[in-house]
Records
---
Amino acid sequence: MRIRGVVYDTGVEMLPGRPSRPAFDPDQVRDDLRVIATELHANAVRLVGENLERLRLAADAAAEAGLAVWLSPALPDATSAAARVQLASCADLGERLRVRGAEVVLVAGWEATLFLRGIVAGATAADRTATMTSPRRLLWSTLRHGPFPYALNRHLRRAAATARSRFHGPVTYAALGFESVDWRPFDYVGVDHYRSGESPQEWTEALGRRRRHGRPVVLTELGCATYAGAEARGALAWTVVDRDADPPRLREPVVRDERAQAEEVGRLLDLAGTAGVEGAFVYTYAAFSYPHRPEPEWDLDTAGYGLVAVLPDGSVRRKAAFDAVARRYAL
């Protein structure tokens, strides 16, 4: 694979009052990105976040570390119009960085069917997920908003136009597996591609179908949580955390298994390489709001996808998955 990437979170508030990265230390960010470049042997980083100043600082640090910068602004529960305003500002940031000589790709949206309002009915991502899994609710949503693939692609055409009016490098979108995207406005087919119970062969065959669009395919996310059996839950393995509890805790007795996480992440990277995709981004370097604690029910990192475990004092410890990725990216 030409693009050997890692996702890096600069902070997104997916749930009200629960930011994914409560603290943001610029020195730590610079050190993390140096580690991603020199010790994970990545050549690209996908920077996810909603605060443009944080994205700017991280993008500068990533470029200084020699990484290709995939800027991925996020604004959960926003309208399409509000998301495009944020995207325009991020496009300006990306263009300034590109003109200075950095390799920059702009990710003009992220799983918009669930993360934005107005494509399907629902005020929150949880509400919109319920809409997508209920035939009755989906019918009502279709009557109100139109068929969701139409509403999604209308938003993406506008987003791509906004991006290209200010940014003159490559543009893509990070799609959910079920989203039917018209990829003509984009330079890469981008898809968040986890394994959720299907066989490795089925997972790889799904990638092959992505190539029919005539664009290079990049896996904008792949990964696995840190417990036995997490590979069967894929992108939903984090739902074992009870976020309504104070403080949050695991809602079921899953068994922490760093080796299982490493084996699954390594397997997915190997499969992606044989499938002939242009690149992949492992999700994620660190799950900053999922601290690793010795008590199993409070060990949120068990449900996290990080290659490093974040300790309660903010320091990090490398997990087996870190080494699994580093070995493959060093080849």
---
Amino acid sequence: MRLLLVEDERALAAALEDALREEGWVVDHTVDGRDGLRMALLGQYDVVVLDIMLPSMNGYDVLKHMRQRRVWTPVLMLTAKDGDYDQTDAFELGADDYVTKPFSTRVLLARVQALSRRGAPERPVALTVGCLSLDPTTRRVTREGKEIQLTAREYALLHHLMRKAGQVQSKSEILENVWDSDYPGADNVVEVYIGYLRRKIDAPFASKSLETVRGMGYRLNPIEVPAEG
């Protein structure tokens, strides 16, 4: 799951980024309104968290241009400002939610999670690949009816692979979608987490769903429930 955070208070932004990443979100951050608009128009985000008071272009104008360009990504407005616009105006411009500073981080995370579910009606609530199932509403993962416990990063990796089931995903594609686009580390972190995931979703079962495609990347294949008898 990918989120765009447009917030110029750097300390607040850093705290939010940490909290969101702990929940498995990939976060892109900018402090500038025009940059935020460009990223929102070009990127594929599940949610945008958008401050109102921003350099170069305020959040209301960013939102207005997004909706004019038919970008329907759910937007949560984040502000301490009481001024020209109020919450009603924000909703009329196309906002999906509105939080006033100071706020509870847990409440914000819950609202972001709710927006991510609401914002993708074309996707099934639960992802299913053969006998493997992932429910984003509860973050519950099962295979053949048996629940599998995953860390936040393992969950994000599996979520991406399930959304791209049957397609080969290169290390760079996985890094871009599961880690941050500017992740400074080596790409062997992907191999490490693929290994973690294999031990949980494949090793305890008779058949293997997660395939290494030599020289290309990784692919999650549908595995059906084995027939009884």
